[in-house]
Structures are given as structure tokens and as C-alpha cells.
Design goal:
The chain is an all-alpha fold. The protein contains two helices and no strands. α1 runs antiparallel to α2 (29-44).
């Protein structure tokens, strides 16, 4: 496990994305899995969302 050192606004945006993925899993598990794969690939490649304002 690794800690992600990002500004609070970025952390909020990441949390929001995870909540969307979780909600999608309740309706379409395959879509949620694709979203989660994209989410983790973006993190691994250093692509972070813009800060929430």
C-alpha cells in the first residue's frame, strides 16, 4: 500500500470518482470494473484530476 500525497482538492476529486464507481457497481458491475481499471491506470501513470474548488 502506498500513500498518495496530493492537495486536499485533488483528494476530494479522487474520492468523488470512487463514489461514482461504487454507485455504478450497484447497477452495472462490468461498467464499474472498467471505470475502476481506468481510475487505477490513471493513478499509476500520474494522471490526477484537477483540484475541486
Amino acid at each position: 500500500m502506498r500513500a498518495l500525497q496530493v492537495p486536499e482538492g485533488v483528494r476530494m476529486a479522487l474520492t468523488r470518482k470512487l463514489l461514482v464507481i461504487t454507485a455504478a457497481a450497484k447497477h452495472d458491475l462490468a461498467d464499474a470494473a472498467r471505470r475502476l481499471d481506468r481510475f487505477t491506470a490513471d493513478l499509476d501513470e500520474g494522471r490526477l484530476p484537477d483540484e475541486e474548488r
